[in-house]
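Teaching note: in complex prediction, the entire set of molecules is handled at once rather than each chain in isolation. The prompt given to students was simply: 'Predict the structure of this complex.' The entities are:
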Amino acid sequence: AQSVTQLGSHVSVSEGALVLLRCNYSSSVPPYLFWYVQYPNQGLQLLLKYTTGATLVKGINGFEAEFKKSETSFHLTKPSAHMSDAAEYFCAVSDRDTNAGKSTFGDGTTLTVKP
Amino acid sequence: EAGVAQSPRYKIIEKRQSVAFWCNPISGHATLYWYQQILGQGPKLLIQFQNNGVVDDSQLPKDRFSAERLKGVDSTLKIQPAKLEDSAVYLCASSFRQGASNTGELFFGEGSRLTVL
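The expected output is the structure of the full assembly:
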């Protein structure tokens, strides 16, 4: 069975500072990996995904994540935080191919950006 | 392209009452999911449909929850009778336009927030 662990349920950074949100997964085979963002009272929106190929993936709003198979990690980063980045972020994993989409989610990390 | 539509956005009921949520996925998406998101937790899969068939309902509490997608398009999730612990946001998501590569990306609706008193 797959599982996702997000270290730190709350992360607070100053505007302009580096954002680092941590995600580790367990899976018997290399999975698809995702980061979603959820703004208050809204559904989840895809930030970025890793399926195959280059292990450093770039997403929307300046975010990127690196797939490290040896560490079973998929940490999310952004060089300079903006006030509009304040939201909840979810890491997710799914099987490949026919079962792709049936994702297992972490419990989320709430990002606060201080002025 | 229209996104995933859900209704109602908010619902407050007493325990032991019933409630139904409706979802219309993105046009052409074959796969539809219902997730339950309890406050402070990530979404948990309740049920997955492929067209009008159930692929996985292993996490659906079938004594009180039911879901259908009769024509392979929109879907309804019902809870009867509701318990206090059913208070959550119910998220509908869709994916996988048939004929395209399935890379697992989910497209979510805004969710239906249920409060059971």
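Point out the following to students. The interface with chain A takes residues 4, 31, 33, 40-45, 48, 55-56, 91, 93, 95-96, 102-111, 113 of chain B (CB under 8 Å). Chain B has no helices and eleven strands.
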